[in-house]
Amino acid sequence: GSVSCIPCKEMAPDLKALNSEIQEKAIIKFVDVWKYQNLANGYPIEMIPTQIFIDSKGEPYKSADVNKYQLEIVKDKEGNHIFTTHVGPLTKAEMLDILKEMGLNE
């Protein structure tokens, strides 16, 4: 996202609260891709906010239902699943649901 992006600003309090609540269980990292463009290199970011979900093994999150939160599966040229993303804002409850599906134990 970006600190200048309105939907990103709207998500910021939820991201901060969720990060505080789940410390040592999951990592939520916000990167201002306008300010730190090099950190976005190699990631499938075309619009912001974009969330990228990676499991504890460094693998892309494999959702049981990608349609539930309009998740996108990004594949490489060989058809390998390399990223799971969501474009647009998510609420704290939606992010928590996704993290729980990924294995987060509260």
Question: How would you describe this structure to a colleague?
Answer:
The protein is an alpha+beta fold. Helices cover 28% and strands 13% of the residues.
Anisotropy-based shape: globular
Rounded average pLDDT:
94
**Gap between N and C termini, in Å?**
26 Å
**Beta fraction:** 5-15%
Q: Note poorly predicted spans.
A: none
For the biggest sheet, the summary is: 3 strands, antiparallel
Strand count: 3
Q: In angstroms, what is the radius of gyration?
A: 13 Å
Order of the strands making up the biggest sheet: 1-3-2
Order of helices and strands: HHEEEH
- Structural class given helices, strands, pairing? alpha+beta
Put simply, the count of helices is: 3
Percentage of helical residues? 25-40%
Question: Quick recap of the structure?
Answer:
The chain is of the alpha+beta class and 106 residues long. It has three helices and three strands.
Question: Topology of this protein?
Answer:
Elements: H1 6-21, H2 37-40, E1 50-52, E2 72-75, E3 81-87, H3 92-101
Antiparallel strand pairs: 1-3, 2-3
Structural descriptors:
106 residues; alpha+beta; 3 strands
